[in-house]
Specification:
Elements (H helix, E strand, L loop, with lengths): L12 H9 L11 E2 L11 H9 L14 H15 L11 E4 L2 H12 L10 E6 L4 H8 L3 E6 L15 H6 E7 L11 H14 L2 E5 L14 H9 L5 E6 H4 L8 E5 L1 H14 L5 H11 L3 H21 L13 E5 L3 H12 L1 E2 L1 E2 L17 E5 L4 H14 L1
Helix pairs in contact: 2-11, 3-11, 4-5, 4-10, 7-8, 12-14, 13-14
This protein binds pyridoxal-5'-phosphate (PLP).
Length: about 400
């Protein structure tokens, strides 16, 4: 016996990719390069190891679910500065540490999706293509996922004007990723405000997935809390998800936070005392130090900018290349993403992710990701350049 909702979970994109490439050999004499996973390989700042070492004794203590006051205060002040939030809108009471936003994005569905005894299922709105956790969370919470295409025609952001009133009436949760994975598109303040307005009118929670917000090319992306502040100065119906994985190049630390609507934070904190996932105290101490430091983030941004410069030099005018305003992915229209991924592995030893694996087939069988490949510019400059040269020579 098991929870039959598990049967609705599809294979994760990296399992599909492993299957796609399992019978294909990369060329001999060429070191394979994986650009398929968004796992930053830039070295983290020294203060990470130093702070962890200084808190060794804390491994002997169970961490409290709400974390430490130092962590929450540092994060609240980071948010206030970053988004020019009004005094008191987000204080340490409105912040919770999470063990990476992946688990938090999954668990929020357990908080947000109501149990219905009969009648229509609650809806979760999900941009398409999307971070696959959203669909897994909707499935395990018993909700109906409604996918909103985010393709080139609509600037790679879902068009909420196309969601019917009857779907909005059933919506319990909406995931929105900005800067988005995989396209690197950025929601402006008006866009966020429109979605927040819908969330308030239809009483659903907006889960604003903003883990790429510090990796921008020129202009800092606006955030959901910033938009809420401009609307009425409250975070009602908004929960923002932030992570150190990309900002500070520490995906292995498993450290992020959520902040926003006071009622949601309180209820979610209660749920989290049961689900677990409290961040260990040495990790919280290191995370506090990382959120308080901007120098390493600036250096990180500069490194990504250099790699986008290289990508632009090599790919400009080809494969519908565009330079995204944020994030660290290239999203290239290659016509047939799966075919291209096989070809690149076989002929160039470069592993990329077919866009279809981040997307859902529509009724006609096609998906908004079919034509694309996603390329993660997460390696050092030299490796990235080598991979892009091989890719350009192959395609
Ligand atoms: C869109 C998006 N959201 C959330 C995450 C989760 O990041 P983490 O769990 O490392 O905070 C990722 C990781 O790749 C992501 O791409």
């Amino acid at each position: 016996m098991h929870n039959s909702r598990l049967d609705d979970l599809r294979d994760y994109p990296f399992q599909k990719l492993a299957r796609l490439l399992e019978t294909i050999d990369p060329p001999t004499g060429m070191t394979p390069i994986a650009l398929s996973i968004g796992e930053p390989q830039h070295p983290p700042p020294a203060l990470l190891a130093d702070t962890l070492a200084a808190h060794t004794a804390d491994w002997g203590r169970y961490p409290p679910t709400p974390g430490t006051p130092e962590f929450r205060e540092t994060v609240a002040s980071w948010l206030k500065n970053r988004y020019a939030l009004p005094d008191g809108m987000i204080t340490e009471k409105h912040v919770l540490p999470v063990s990476g936003t992946r688990e938090a994005l999954f668990n929020i569905a357990l908080y947000a999706i109501p149990q219905v005894q009969s009648g229509e299922r609650p809806v979760v709105l999900i941009p398409d293509p999307f971070y696959q956790i959203y669909a897994g969370a909707a499935a395990m919470a018993g909700a109906e996922p409604v996918f909103l295409p985010a393709d080139a025609d609509n600037g790679f952001l879902p068009n909420f004007g196309e969601v019917s009133e009857s779907v909005l009436a059933r919506t319990a949760l909406c995931y929105l990723c900005s800067p988005s994975n995989p396209q690197g598109s950025v929601a402006d303040l008006a866009y966020w405000q429109n979605v927040i307005g819908l969330a308030r009118r239809h009483d659903f929670l907006l889960a604003a997935d903003e883990c790429y917000c510090e990796l921008y090319d020129r202009i800092p992306p606006p955030g959901a809390l910033e938009a809420a502040a401009a609307l009425d100065g409250t975070a009602s119906h908004v929960l923002a998800f932030h992570s150190l994985s990309k900002r500070s190049s520490v995906p292995g630390l498993r450290s992020g936070f959520v902040a926003g609507d006071p009622d949601v934070v309180a209820g979610y904190a209660k749920l989290r005392t049961y689900t677990g996932g409290a961040s260990p105290l040495p990790i919280l101490a290191a995370a506090t130090a990382l959120w308080a430091d901007e120098a390493h983030v600036k250096a990180n941004r500069a490194l990504y900018r250099r790699k986008f410069d290289i990508a632009e030099r090599i790919l400009s005018g080809r494969l519908h290349f565009y330079r995204p305003p944020a994030g660290f992915y290239l999203w290239l229209d290659v016509g047939d993403g799966e075919r291209c991924a096989r070809e690149l592995w076989h002929r160039a030893g470069v592993k990329v992710l077919p866009g279809a694996y981040l997307s859902r087939p529509r009724e006609d069988g096609s998906s908004p990701g079919d034509r694309y490949i996603r390329i993660a510019l997460v390696h050092d400059v030299e490796t990235t350049e080598e991979a892009l040269m091989r890719l350009a020579a192959t395609l």
